[in-house]
Amino acid sequence: MASAPPTRLAFLAISMVLLSSVAMAADFVVGGDQGWKLDFDYEEWAQDKVFRVGDNLLFNYDNTKHNVVKVNGTQFQNCSFTPENEILSNGKDTITLKTEGKKWYICGKPTHCADHQMKLTINVQAEAPAPAPSSAHSLMASLSGVLIFAIAAIFA
Ligand SMILES: [Cu+2]
């Protein structure tokens, strides 16, 4: 009987760890079911979403027709890029958001950005304040503490 509360605590701690890892890395499929394609309003798609450092952007598209080019703000406005820009062309590309601030992506195929809205800009915010990845370690520490306590209680 005495072992029941610690077991429940351990379960709660495990759930918290799982939840925190989910919160740490959200995956955003650009355009949702529509993916990365012509004439979709990516500005509207991004509007109600909060992007954070550690999240992933997933670009799904037909790589015989499109690609994804990481550009800067000026290039975004002009729908232009140079050979120095990073171009993704797998058709299933994942971009991990590593830093805060504005990010810009366009399709590099002629007219797709300028005439068909294949352009996405997002503003990446800092990692969620709690539970942050740095606190995951202390959470793990307290989890192992709870587990040891639970095991001790069972075998006592
Ligand atoms: Cu395109």
Plain-language structure description:
The structure is a single chain. 39% of the residues lie in helices and 22% in strands. The protein has a domain at 24-130: Immunoglobulin-like (Sandwich). The protein has helices at 4-24, 42-47, 73-78, 112-116, 133-155, and strands at residues 27-29, 51-52, 56-60, 68-71, 87-88, 92-96, 101-106, 119-125. Helix 1 packs antiparallel against helix 5. The protein has 156 residues and is an alpha/beta fold. The protein is built from five helices and eight strands; from the N terminus they run αβαβββαβββαβα. The strands form two sheets. It has a five-stranded mixed beta sheet. Strands 1-3-6 form a three-stranded mixed beta sheet, with no helix packed on it. Residues 65-66, 107, 109, 112, 118 line the site of copper (II) ion. Copper (II) ion (CU) binds next to loops.
Can you tell me the CATH class of one domain?
Mainly Beta
Strand order of the largest sheet: 2-8-7-4-5
**What is the CATH superfamily classification of one domain?**
Cupredoxins -  blue copper proteins
Rg, Å, rounded: 22 Å
| Helix/strand/pairing category | alpha/beta
Total strands: 8
The string of secondary-structure elements, in order, is HEHEEEHEEEHEH
- Unique bound compounds: copper (II) ion
Range of strand content = 15-25%
Q: Kindly report the CATH topology of one domain.
A: Immunoglobulin-like
Between the first and last Cα atoms, what is the distance in angstroms? 12 Å
CATH architecture of one domain: Sandwich
- Low-confidence spans: pLDDT under 50, at least 5 residues? none
Number of helices: 5
**Average of per-residue pLDDT values:** 84
Taking the sheet with the most strands, its summary is: 5 strands, mixed
Summarize the amount of helix as a percent range.
25-40%
Query: Can you tell me the overall shape?
Result: elongated
